[in-house]
Amino acid sequence: MSSAHGRVGVGTRFQYDGEVVEVVEMTATAAGNEVILRNDRGQVRRLALKELLFSDRVQLIPEQTGPAATDVEQIASVVLSQLSPDERRGALERAEHVREVLTGYRSGSPELPREGEPRPAYAPGASLEDRYMAKAVELGVAARSVRRWVAQFREHGEAGLTSRKKRSLSWGTSVDDRWVETALEVMVEHTGHSRPSRTLVIARTRARVIARFGEGVIAQPSRATAFRILADLERRHPLFRLSTRRNRDIAERPEGPYGKLRPTRPGEYLLMDTTRLDVFAFDPLTLRWVQAELTVAMDWYTRCITGLRLTPVSTKAVDVSAVLYQAFRPRQAGRDWPRHAVWPEHGIPRAVLLDVEAAEGPGLASPPLVPETLVVDHGKVYVSEHLTSVCRRMGISIQPARLRTGRDKGPVDRFFRTLREGLLEALPGYKGPDIHARGEDPEGEAFFFLDELEAIVREWTAVVYHCRPHAGLVDPGAPGLRMSPAKMFEHGMARAGYIEVPRDPDLAFEFLATKWRTIQHYGVEIGRRRYTGPGLPAPGIRSPYAGPVKNGWPFQVDPDDISRIYFRDPDSRTWHTLMWEHAPSADMPLSEDALAFARKLAAAKYRYPDDRLAVADLLERWNLGLGSTLAERRMALRVSREQAALELPSTDTATLASVRTALGHGAAPAEQAPGPEPEMGDDDVADLEDLADDFYADALEDV
Prior knowledge:
Elements: E1 13-16, E2 19-29, E3 32-39, E4 44-48, H1 49-54, E5 58-61, H2 76-81, H3 85-103, H4 128-139, H5 143-156, H6 177-189, H7 198-213, H8 223-236, H9 244-251, E6 270-283, E7 288-299, E8 305-312, H10 317-328, H11 356-359, E9 373-376, H12 385-393, E10 397-400, H13 410-422, H14 450-465, H15 485-496, E11 513-517, E12 524-526, E13 529-532, E14 553-558, E15 561-568, E16 575-580, H16 592-605, H17 611-622, H18 630-645, H19 657-663, H20 684-690, H21 694-702
Parallel strand pairs: 6-9, 9-10
Antiparallel strand pairs: 1-2, 1-5, 2-3, 3-4, 6-7, 7-8, 11-14, 12-13, 13-16, 14-15, 15-16
């Protein structure tokens, strides 16, 4: 009879350090039990019994057969876990029959008999051979099968009664391994190329096998067998089933496990990335449908979005700097946002990040923090000299991701997918993630302006994304607890005890672009725009800088808001704001691109245009005019009417205040006192008379 245990005493043999030894004596000492061992050469050594039993240098030589860890058979838990519910019930039922043959009871014990047990055919007085025959007749099988079941049960228990066989290769064992390896080699060579057919791979494999090993040396498998081989090799190296881009991504995976950064507190790692949104937007400058790119900054530990920016067509380095600027000084939340989506205006560390005027607002749209490390890709906008220099001055290290390895910024890529599935799919103008998912005419549905789309994305992030539990936000101490990014931020502060904050909020001005200009009697001129204000040095003062402009001074310029620039006094080190002379004519931030477009329009309309006329025409275009041609005016009016009449389905997106405001479903504005009648151009009356349809007349009244 086999057994899993062995006797240890005088005469027991062991294999110790590669030689066979025998126990000749066992003694008890003050230090514990000890044994005397003797090898084949007669040498004797004393050893502690504890080391003899538990040391990896010792192995028992059993006197009888029994199970061992090196057995070919699988362990019982592995065998039973592979069974389906029906197979498991069949094995347990067969085990009951075997126990009845051996003991007379299906439970295997006389203490747990079932009704009518033991039956006469299996009574204790019946011979084992008679029991075999009775069970064979009862089950309708041969007596030899019952004997085999009993032998398997005695050796392996219930696991030995399973009928599942070891899975073999689908192509059998008749195929030469060299042919299989050659086929895999051909598949690997097609990783960077267009997807081939299976027939082409098989033909090249056969030709290479003949050229490498000779004609007739390796038997060529049949066409059906070759197809089965490629189907199994597809698991090792995908080539036919997935897209070619996905196949290349799988092929570039590291062979072994690759370590990754593991954040332990808020602000330790800040992920930054840019993606093209799957929705069209409307450019108010050109009145054209444009594609928008979204740049976001995400705190890796909390998954909180600390900054985002929407740009038309492409992203510039100044846009990346502006997103990083929002992490230092977050934007104000909307006045109609729910309170759970607003970060508090006061407290540590928020109070050191805000001005007194900013603290009087409704709150912050995102959590403020200073990142310790930026994780970015190798795009030009992320590795610019200006951004890297400012990060080095502020003590922010830059960790570049691996080339063509998107998984290094997996959380922010997952945010882009969540944004598409949770928000963009419900917006008009949604065009799908690829060309195969695009609708018939998504451009005809687009109506959100770029600023409206950015406001919608910003509010959805604060109201929905920051407050929704994430499966990836897990505390190792409470693995069953699912937290939202907002809760994870509070948890991180409680765990870390502190977060990094900027010692001076004005440090954020260093992210803006620098322009060198001389100071004249009228102020400073940048891009044919004149700026002046308190704190500007007198024209005759010599500049202490040796910049690219002789006697020039540095000024910080935000391309998205040219209504003001910033200047730092080299003596007092205080910052001053200089206003554009035509800024009072525009009650909104004006970008450099918008002014260039306005100058182009004014040059086509006036003989001697200036910036005042250009801005006035641009504001007229943005409000009532909206176009220099009748076709553009009709298109803009049609968009305005659609914007007021469109209804979204009942979803979370439709409840956002930014969406309802853009759709014209918000609260009715308060009535304002009538102002002076606006001046109209020479062609305005004529154009309006051409719009005989009441639809456009009503649209003008709505505007």
